[in-house]
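User
Take a look at the entry that follows and flag anything odd:
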Amino acid sequence: MKRQRSEESRTGQRVALFIAGIGLFWILVTALGAQYGWSQRTRALFDLVALAGFGAGLWMTYKLWRARQNDKD
């Protein structure tokens, strides 16, 4: 039981780091786009990439939550 909780904790930490990494990526790309005068199309592309990353993080969080709900039974 303790080993299983440890695995769930590590998975939760990976998801949190993934979401934080996407956030940092988005901030960095936004700053670079402003600094170098990238076109609005290029900035929008990176915004969509970041949005997809946040969606993936939300999906991973949901899967982790469902796994914990299944373990309760």
Summary: The radius of gyration is 17 Å.
